[in-house]
């Protein structure tokens, strides 16, 4: 009886795919699946060549076959046939001495289950049950994280779009500070969009029904990965742009509070170059390195971390600069509050409010895990980092939009007046003679709102306060 090469069902291959994905949740299951499928193709080809070259025995026997899981030689009727566990299994090193078995019936047919599915015992080739349970728990945790950041990015995107509409629709809010806020909102929105688009492309790619081996080959081809690679590049660009608009916010506020009086129009174009142009300087070399050296899957796995540092170093640099500016600005605010603490019995509380307001604006929370790189974090520390990173990054756009648009008194107050930090700077016309913050009765100093910190520049120009800031 001659063999039918490749006879059987693809059910085993589908089950194997899920095992591969579940067994590699923290490390990029798609990459493991791709490598496993390549090894499976090599195992299949070797099996087919061996079946074609070996002579057939005389008499009654069970056909040699490849049942999509293992390669079976001809079997004698009424016996069990044992072969080694297939080498394409991701955990092969653990089970390389194990055996998988099938039974050859007395009628010269392989024993089946339910009349169609081949019976086999591959218990010795399975991964350890404890490891599988742990990995299933990790998979469920990652699914929960995905739901969390999807909700966060969706909420942030809706809020950011609304905030952008408010800033662009109200003519009285059109000044450099709010233009910078609008660009920061846009970078948050693009980041959220790119993450959700990438996830949608991955779900579409891995959610297709695979019936034939050709479907797997098409799924894992470079052409099929083009869409998710483009989404990956866009996402990395948006992440970098997001961090550099944090830096623009920090530089602008620093110049406003500490630097000399300057013309905002001369700097806004530089801010645009810094926020949107700088990321291109790093994303293009990273993209070239991935294409030439690691052109596999969706470019999400970093086998050579040197390529990852091409875009990681500028993020760390921007975060460190933001931290230094943040500390300097807090010193300025503290000096101002102390100089007027007679009118501010609760100045420490106001300093705390200003601090908590600046943290999301500058992205200072990024410093918490700045040195805990992906390759250095394992076990529970890795999951803690993933949770806080995903939670803060996904909801940060929502928080920034609320603090700097919907909770901003310039927006919620009547008139929507844009306070001018220096004469003749808003809309290209001179500001009114009246101060942007009315002076309370009795000559008391105006209350400092953490939501309008940039407008403090006009309040720190007199000689007494400059001396206090310089101290």
TrEMBL record:
It is found in: Cell membrane. Residues 46-129, 145-408 form the G-protein coupled receptors family 2 profile domain. The keyword Methyltransferase does not apply. It is a multi-pass membrane protein. Its main location: membrane. One of its GO terms (biological process) is adenylate cyclase-modulating G protein-coupled receptor signaling pathway. The keyword Membrane applies. It comes from the Eukaryota. Coiled coil: none annotated. One of its GO terms (molecular function) is peptide hormone binding. The chain crosses the membrane at residues 147-167, 270-289, 309-330, 351-372, 384-406. Belongs to the G-protein coupled receptor 2 family. This is Glucagon receptor-like. The lineage of its organism: Eukaryota, Metazoa, Chordata, Craniata, Vertebrata.
């Amino acid at each position: 009886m001659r063999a039918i090469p490749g006879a059987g069902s693809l059910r085993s291959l589908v089950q194997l795919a899920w095992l591969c994905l579940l067994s590699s949740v923290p490390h990029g299951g798609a990459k493991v699946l791709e490598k496993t499928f390549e090894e499976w193709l090599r195992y299949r080809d070797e099996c087919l060549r061996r079946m074609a070259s070996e002579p057939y025995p005389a008499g009654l026997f069970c056909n040699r076959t490849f049942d999509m899981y293992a390669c079976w030689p001809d079997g004698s009727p009424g016996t069990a046939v044992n072969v080694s566990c297939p080498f394409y299994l991701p955990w092969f090193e653990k089970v390389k001495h194990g055996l998988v078995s099938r039974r050859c019936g007395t009628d010269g047919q392989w024993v089946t289950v339910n009349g169609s599915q081949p019976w086999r015992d591959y218990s010795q080739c399975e991964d350890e049950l404890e490891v599988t349970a742990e990995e299933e728990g990790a998979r469920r945790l990652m699914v929960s994280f995905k739901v969390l950041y999807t909700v966060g990015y969706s909420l942030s995107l809706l809020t950011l779009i609304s905030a952008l509409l408010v800033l662009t629709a109200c003519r009285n809010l059109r000044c450099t500070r709010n233009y910078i806020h609008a660009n920061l909102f846009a970078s948050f929105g693009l980041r959220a969009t790119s993450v959700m688009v990438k996830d949608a492309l991955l779900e579409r790619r891995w959610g297709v029904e695979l019936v034939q081996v050709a479907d797997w080959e098409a799924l894992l081809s470079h052409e099929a990965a083009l869409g998710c690679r483009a989404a990956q590049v866009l996402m990395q660009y948006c992440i970098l742009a997001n961090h550099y608009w944090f830096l623009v916010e920090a530089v602008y506020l620093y110049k406003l509070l500490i630097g000399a009086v300057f013309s905002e129009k001369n700097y806004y174009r530089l801010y645009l170059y810094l926020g949107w142009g700088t990321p291109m300087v790093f994303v293009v070399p990273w993209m070239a390195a991935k294409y030439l050296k690691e052109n596999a899957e969706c470019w999400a796995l970093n086998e050579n971390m040197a390529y990852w540092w091409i875009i990681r170093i500028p993020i760390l640099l921007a975060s460190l600069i933001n931290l230094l500016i943040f500390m300097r600005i807090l010193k300025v605010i503290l000096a101002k509050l102390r100089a007027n603490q007679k009118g501010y019995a609760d100045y420490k509380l106001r300093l705390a409010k200003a601090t908590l307001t600046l943290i999301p604006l500058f992205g200072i929370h990024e410093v918490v895990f700045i040195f805990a790189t992906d390759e250095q974090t394992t076990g529970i520390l890795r999951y803690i980092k993933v949770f806080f990173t995903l939670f803060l990054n996904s909801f940060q756009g929502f928080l920034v939009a609320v603090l700097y648009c919907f909770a901003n008194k310039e927006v919620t107050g009547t008139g929507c007046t844009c306070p001018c930090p220096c004469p003749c700077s808003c809309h290209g016309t001179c500001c009114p003679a009246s101060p942007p913050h009315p002076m309370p009765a009795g000559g008391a100093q105006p209350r400092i709102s953490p939501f309008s910190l940039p407008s403090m520049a006009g309040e720190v120009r007199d000689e007494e306060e400059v001396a206090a800031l310089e101290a």
